Amino acid sequence: MLGATVVWGSQYILIKQGLTEIPLFLFQGIRHLIAFLGFCPWWARFRKMNKQVFIASMLNAIAFYFLILFVSWGLEYTSSSEGAFMASMYVAFTPFVGYFMLKTKIKVLKLAGVAVAVVGMAIMLFGNSGIGTLSFNGDILVLIGAFFNAIQIVLLEKYTKKIDTMLFVLTQMVMICLMMLGTSAVLQERVDWVVIPLMTWASWLYLGIVAGTITLLIQAFAQKMIDETRAALLYSLEPVFAIFFGILLGAEPLTIMFVLGAGLIMTGIVLSSINLKHREASSNKSD
For the purposes of burial, counting CB atoms within 10 Å of the CB of 273, is it exposed (0-12), middle (13-18) or buried (19 or more)? Predict the structure, then answer.
């Protein structure tokens, strides 16, 4: 999960740059088509398709579609670092979405971890850019996308423990690709393929294979072992890496606010990982 989070942190600037060259739905449609092609070793799994997998994949694909739509749309109007913060607000949404969808109990330490992680993200990002620089319209769009991200995480928690994970991932990827390219066709998006920069093709490959195929496999398999709130808190490191790549590639200075924010996010993850029931059971056993 941590490796997937590093990749996701690096994708914001690439998406923002890509959308200056390619229309939104076409850009994301091609990206997910490339991701689907990356799953070719497992295409034979489609022979095992059943109603449960189809419904689970469709629900998750719809949530993923709106996640991609609002985050990509918002990045056209806000910076990649601000977008990374707003997109990571699903950390705050996930426990509550989990409660309403799965009746998952909201534990005090997990809520504390969420609160500390959100504060850490705010300090780190606002400390680097200043709260006055927020682009309201773009940030709100990305925030809506974050809500759909929370739904997607909870859906993964619900279904990946019951069905064939690889078939689920494959079916979901096909549906997302068809939704994006279908929307692009309806909107009659156009692009001159001859003049597309080489960097855009490289970004497509990276976003499709690395940030698509590989990270989706990691997410689907890892959430069989980790609950949705803890998963969201691990994903909260995404803006840490988003700013890190800004520092590394954009020569931005490493500030004390970055260090403080990253430390608080790690503290939030540790808080969410403490299992009081396990500790109590160990204590009783010792007694």
Answer: middle
Q: How many domains does the chain have?
A: 1
CA distance 112 to 271: 7
Question: What is the Cα–Cα distance from 142 to 80, expressed in whole angstroms?
Answer: 11
81 located within any domain: yes
**Terminal C-alpha separation, the chain:** 37
**Distance from C-alpha of 124 to C-alpha of 259, rounded to nearest angstrom:** 7
Contact 257, 124 (CB under 8 A): yes
Residue 238 resides in a domain = no
Q: How many CA atoms lie within 13 A of 51 on its CB side?
A: 0
Q: Quick check: helix, strand or coil at residue 104?
A: coil
Least confident of 38-52, 143-157, 271-285: 271-285
What pTM does this model have?
0.78
Domain assignment of residue 57, given as a range: 2-107+133-226
Whether residue 241 contacts residue 86, with contact meaning beta carbons closer than 8 Å, is answered with no
Q: What integer pLDDT is reported at residue 260 of this predicted model?
A: 83
Closest CA to 130 of 283, 260, 257: 257
Site of tokens 């079916």: 171
Would the pLDDT of 129 be above 70?
no
Residue 220 within a domain: yes
Assess if residue 101 is contained within a domain: yes
Three-state secondary structure of 189-207? CCCCHHHCCHHHHHHHHHH
DSSP state for residue 73 in the 8-state scheme: H
